[in-house]
Amino acid sequence: MQSSFPCHEPIVTMEHVSFAYGQQPVLRDVTFTIYERDFVGLIGANGSGKTTLLKMIVGLLKPDLGEIRLFGQPLRQFREWNRIGYVPQRNQLNPLFPATVREVVLSGLYNRKKMFKFVNKADHAKADDAMHALGIEDLGSRLIGKLSGGQQQRAFLARALIDNPQLLILDEPTVGVDAETQEGFFQMIKHMHQKHNITFLLVSHDRDMMKEYLGDEPAYKHGRIGFHVRHSHDLEDCSQEDLTHGLRDYHRQLAGESVS
Amino acid sequence: MDIFAYDFFQRALIGGIMIGLMTPLIGTFVVLRRLSMIGDTLAHVSIAGVALGFLIDIYPLGMGLVFAILAAFAIEKLRSAYKGYAELSIAILLSGGIALASILFTLGKGFNMNVNSYLFGNILSLSQLDLLLVTVVTAAVLIAVLVLFKELFLMALDEDAASVNGLPLSLLNILTIVLTALVVSVAIKIVGALLISALLTIPVACSLVFGRGFKQTVFIAVLVSELAVIGGLSIAGIWNLAPGGTIVMLLIATLVLLLLVRRSVRV
Fold first, then answer.
1. Which residue in A58, A100, A143 is closest to B164 by CB distance?
2. How far apart (Å, rounded) are the C-alpha atoms in residues A210 and B228?
């Protein structure tokens, strides 16, 4: 289980995990480890249990059997949720929800705020960085429900990024988004993986884009779910620069390229 | 205009202003979590408590409050028992509350007149004790919403993500619903059990028309609610109308007006 590289520690460990909805078994005896700086894509048919798996990892569902560990700690004892950015499927969002993009992005910091502590200037600066990082800095005062699917996706990703997480868990991030936006989104998360060494766990219906980056052959197969894995390019360099600042430069470059 | 000089009217106004503040505060979260019918349900169960209070001669509003809180726990319990069918628990308790109330009504036939004021509200009969209870509940709601504003926002926006933020969801759920029960059972006095959802939902519906952000939405909802309560009480006092009904009609008129304004602005 142990990797020979210092920055390739196990981040998510599943051991003999099983889950059933009532009498309907969904996952049976899954054993898999996601290491630091891996990009893991889950590919599988609808109903194969991909979302169920993600929900167990973030603690929304409890496995019937087996154990899950996050950053080496049993899930029950794990409290450092700011190390994980989670973007659930977007179809749950109420389109009339009366919050601005800035309010949504800032809410990514709420779990670190004590009672009675409200957002301050430093928090707003972080939100600015996160919005810049995703190229939505002009949308801060817009209502989240009034944005396009792709823009909403970026807003929720900005919320997940605001606290500089090490692991990003994305459930179908490109559903309801046009092909061009999808392509741009994939480029961006690949960049985050390669240049910023973010660990990814991604569920996507877009097999082609996933396989192009992660390869045709799954590293592990469970039932109808394929676990496709790609390691970061450089496992020996453990340095980690600030993600949101780095991403902001990425978007500036993109903007510059499209202008020239 | 000398109605404003009377003690009972001043008490009604003070009580009304407090109720007008706390109903949209809680109402915002209730509406955004699509639990609008919960106010109605809690109110109907609360009526059974009021009826029991009259029957055994214990402070009816207090008894209603106890019943509302019990109903709040029952809703949460049933909600988890029938996951995905949240409205089922609401329907069961709503009819159960009225069923129990009707039995208790027939047991003590003499108090029908008083019960009416709990069905349709009678803020003009607000006693000192009632006013004290309203004050305590208002303080509790204000403190809870201020302290838990971030948590309540996260839960309303996305319950799953809130849970990943490490929030104790079931505790917060119960707290929200108990606070709603508190608000509903004291607000019964002003608009009555049959109209209570109006105070929880219409100010929020109004602010959703124009709110440009979350805090602004809460603020506009409170503003609309206070205008309707103060305006409605004054109109009802001067022309001798039912206060609860007047406040609700004023709220609906405001909503229609806002929707018309939005339409004309867009065209």
1. A58
2. 56
